[in-house]
């Protein structure tokens, strides 16, 4: 399941250097199954050509209100018929000013006035233009008119200045669109997750770890943001960037992970243990690098705490979800894990089916039995897992109240 699949979005590209990011946005949207129709303003066409957008979207690109390709000369109405949203990225100061004043003297502005779908704008301009009282006034008017504003971001600008005004990156805009369209099944909920491996130091340069890319935990954190939750991700060492809208606490060892979880889990509605926590750690970590001696070497390992079982045993335990990666007898081990750790739900998978890969085959286990999900990418599975847990959580809250 993908919240953007099958949507129709009219993407207006106005004049700004950030127009190059819109080409990437079109690529991401099309990949997600969105039918994208690009409208390029004359100023936008100075930065990126219509050919680029046509090739990426697979649809004709529009610029002119009087385009003869539209048989009834109603481009301003026909283009947004059935559209789920009009998105303007980049939205220039000039275009935003026109929209705030209800002008309709070209295709772009008429489309925005003659619409009955949401309007989403991603401003992009120089810092001083953004901070100007006129722009601030226009943005207030647009927000009051129900327009959704994404960004701008702060940082280094094409003009060399640093400040607020940069358009959000394509992947951030994509996520914001997912959040915009996604069902808010976790609105008002706080979710804490663990993800990635843990690293148990032997000495300053060596340690014991598990192989875990962190991809599933990060995809779940992102899916929880899309579902409207406040998300805290306690992550072991991974190479993954922090998902937009997620508060990440980085840790290395299981003991650090346990401490970080304890510091944020109070008041959480959901705890999802995705981390591949090392079951054992060396009883001590040497202060200096251990020199090789040619002799056999012995390490004494002591068990690590089970973070998930500890959270599930709290008197005020949140709704707890665990993962079971097994090499055989999945039903037996996953259901056993759910009962032994006192969990509300377990996500089980056979390890040969998914470790390190982008797609996976999983089965969900809860008090109601087993629920296999269709094979899908980790991002899609994350939405499926969140939808299932949100359903259980909402039923759970109803029976509690
Ligand atoms: O018992 P096992 O390690 O197979 O359980 C896996 C589940 O328990 C995962 O959800 C994992 O995040 C969690 N876990 C944990 N702390 C441990 C071991 C596992 O939170 N020490």
Keywords:
401 residues, alpha/beta, eight-stranded mixed β-sheet, five-stranded parallel β-sheet, 13 helices, 24% strand, binds cytidine-5'-monophosphate
Structure description:
An eight-stranded mixed sheet has the order 12-11-8-13-16-17-19-20, with helices on both faces. A five-stranded parallel sheet has the order 2-1-3-4-5, with helices on both faces. Strands 6-7 form a two-stranded antiparallel sheet. The radius of gyration is 25 Å and the shape is elongated. It has helices at residues 19-31, 50-57, 75-78, 93-100, 107-113, 127-131, 133-144, 170-181, 215-226, 254-264, 307-312, 330-340, 378-400; strands spanning 8-13, 35-40, 85-91, 119-123, 148-149, 153-156, 162-166, 190-195, 199-203, 206-209, 230-235, 246-250, 270-273, 280-282, 301-303, 319-326, 345-350, 359-360, 363-366, 369-372, 376-377. The chain has 401 residues and is of the alpha/beta class. Helix 1 (19-31) links the parallel strand 1 and strand 2. The protein has 13 helices and 21 strands. The chain starts with 7 loop residues before the first strand and ends with a helix. Helix 1 runs parallel beside helix 2, helix 4 (93-100) crosses helix 7 (133-144) and helix 9 (215-226) crosses helix 13 (378-400). The chain binds cytidine-5'-monophosphate.
């Amino acid at each position: 399941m993908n919240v953007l699949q099958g949507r129709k979005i009219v993407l207006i590209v106005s004049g700004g250097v950030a127009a190059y990011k819109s080409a990437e946005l079109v690529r991401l949207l099309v990949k997600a199954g969105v039918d994208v129709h690009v409208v390029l303003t004359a100023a936008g066409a100075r930065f990126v050509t219509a050919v680029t957008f046509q090739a990426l979207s697979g649809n004709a690109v529009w610029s002119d209100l009087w385009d003869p390709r539209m048989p009834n000369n109603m481009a301003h109405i026909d283009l947004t018929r059935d559209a789920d949203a009009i998105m303007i990225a980049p939205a220039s100061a000039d275009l935003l000013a026109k929209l705030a004043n209800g002008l309709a003297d070209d295709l772009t502005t008429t489309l925005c006035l003659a619409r009955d779908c949401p309007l989403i704008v991603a401003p992009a301009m120089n810092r001083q233009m953004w901070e100007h009282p006129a722009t601030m006034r226009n943005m207030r008017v647009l927000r009051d008119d129900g327009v959704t504003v994404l960004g701008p971001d702060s940082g280094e600008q094409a003009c060399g200045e640093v400040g607020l005004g940069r358009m959000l990156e394509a992947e951030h805009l994509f996520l914001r669109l997912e959040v915009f369209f996604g069902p808010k099944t976790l609105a008002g909920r706080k979710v804490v997750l663990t993800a990635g491996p843990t690293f148990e130091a032997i000495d300053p340069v060596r340690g014991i770890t598990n192989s875990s890319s962190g991809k599933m935990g990060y995809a779940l954190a992102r899916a929880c943001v899309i579902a409207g939750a406040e998300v805290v991700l306690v992550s072991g060492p991974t190479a993954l960037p922090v998902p937009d809208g997620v508060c990440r606490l980085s840790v290395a060892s299981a003991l650090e992970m346990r401490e970080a979880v304890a510091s944020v889990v109070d008041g959480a509605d959901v705890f999802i243990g995705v981390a591949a926590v090392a079951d054992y750690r060396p009883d001590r970590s040497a202060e200096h690098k251990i020199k090789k001696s040619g002799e056999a070497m012995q390490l004494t390992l002591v068990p690590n705490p089970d973070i998930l079982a500890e959270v599930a045993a709290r008197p005020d335990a949140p709704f707890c979800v665990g993962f079971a990666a097994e090499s055989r007898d999945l039903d037996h081990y996953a259901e056993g894990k759910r009962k032994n750790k006192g969990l509300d739900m377990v996500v089980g998978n056979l390890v040969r089916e998914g470790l390190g890969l982008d797609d996976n085959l999983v089965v969900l286990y809860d008090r109601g039995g087993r629920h296999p999900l269709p094979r899908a990418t980790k991002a899609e599975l994350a939405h499926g897992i969140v939808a299932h847990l949100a359903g259980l959580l909402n039923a759970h809250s109803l029976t509690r109240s």
